[in-house]
Amino acid sequence: MKRAAPKPSAAKPAVYTDPLAEVLRPGQSVELLKELHILTRDGKLNQDSRRKLKQVYHLCNFIAPLIDEVLDRQDTLQLADHGAGKSYLGFILYDLYLKDRPGAHIAGIETRDELVAKSRDLATRLGFERMRFLNTTVAEATRTDALPDRFDIVTALHACNTATDDAIRFALAKQARHIVLVPCCQAEVAAVLRKHKNASFGKTPLSEIWRHPIHTREFGSQLTNVLRCLQLEAHGYQVSVTELVGWEHSLKNELIVASQTGQPRGDARARLAAILDACNLTELAPRFLE
Ligand SMILES: C[S@@+](CC[C@H](N)C(=O)[O-])C[C@H]1O[C@@H](n2cnc3c(N)ncnc32)[C@H](O)[C@@H]1O
Q1: Burial (CB count <10 Å: 0-12, 13-18, 19+), residue 66
Q2: pLDDT exceeding 90 applies to what percent of the chain?
């Protein structure tokens, strides 16, 4: 009796997929991703760095068209990244979009000495010669002569507390065309809400929102971003507010992109002043109204 031929296995043949293909863009430096510890020394990707990279890539997708818009008009581009940390954002922007555009410069602003020293060292080793790093606060960076008078793009990714507000001030002083912010928690507004809580109870029923500390903190954080948007609109920026990536990636996930139009929103200042008054926040007028 003839033996039946073995049936072909139902299982699909294993297809090799290179895990790096999903993270590497054409021409991208593997060395950079290793140095940023996004890839391990033997070129593997870990979960934490995958998350960080996803967030930074997503942000890059918003920033790339702004870079193109500036470089379509002029040969030079100055980009400042505030609260740069390890400068993931600056390095990846430079590597993907700026290394072959000789007029483009990035300045990373960061207060932690060791991070600034590491970024300088890495930029030197990679030959990213149009990147520089200032060991200073955002507020001081606005005043220093070491930086140009004009910046085209200002970014601040999770710059702590009021450093995002200082980045807005920097951008306004430097007449930035585009401002890209992913704010961190801002504690200042919530602290002032809390300070005037008793006065607010008699003034507005909304003050129930700041009866409990957790509500005060969250409301203060949201309100801060509302005030920032109005501030930018009062200065002639068109503002869009979206979610950066899914909430599973970060709780600090609000993306504010502002582009200068030269036409301030007519009622923005008045709305801002009215909110400050209604919430007993007038002592913060110098922060948001100047
Ligand atoms: C949460 S980390 C974010 C780092 C980086 N942007 C990122 O997303 O990976 C915030 C960084 O801002 C820096 N920082 C905080 N306040 C600052 C200030 N006023 N001026 C400059 N840097 C500041 C901190 O040292 C820290 O490295």
Answers
A1: buried
A2: 73
The predicted pLDDT at position 24 comes to 81
Nearest CA to ligand 1 atom 9: 85
Please name the residue whose Cα sits nearest to atom 20 of ligand 1: 137
| DSSP-assigned letter for residue 25 | P
Best mutation site among 110, 113, 116, 188 for ligand 1 pocket (most ligand atoms within 8 Å of CB):
110
Question: Which residue is closest in CA terms to ligand 1's atom 23?
Answer: 83
**Residue 19, SS3 per DSSP:** coil
Residue with tokens 């049936």: 7
288 C-alpha to ligand 1 centroid (Å)? 21
Per-residue confidence (pLDDT) for residue 13, from 0 to 100: 55
**Which residue in the block uniquely carries the two structure tokens 């970024």?**
119
Query: Distance, CA 75 to ligand 1 centroid (Å)?
Result: 30
Whole-angstrom distance between the N-terminal and C-terminal Cα of the chain? 95
Residue 12: CB atoms within 10 A of its CB come to 6
For residue 41 the two structure tokens come to 């020394």
Domains of the chain: 26-184 (3.40.50.150), 186-235+263-290 (no CATH)
Distances (CA, A) of 138 to 34, 154, 228: 28, 11, 16
Closest approach atom of ligand 1 to CA 182: 8
Q: Is the pLDDT of residue 250 over 80?
A: no
Chain CA centroid to CA 217, Å = 21
CA 134 to ligand 1 centroid distance, Å: 12
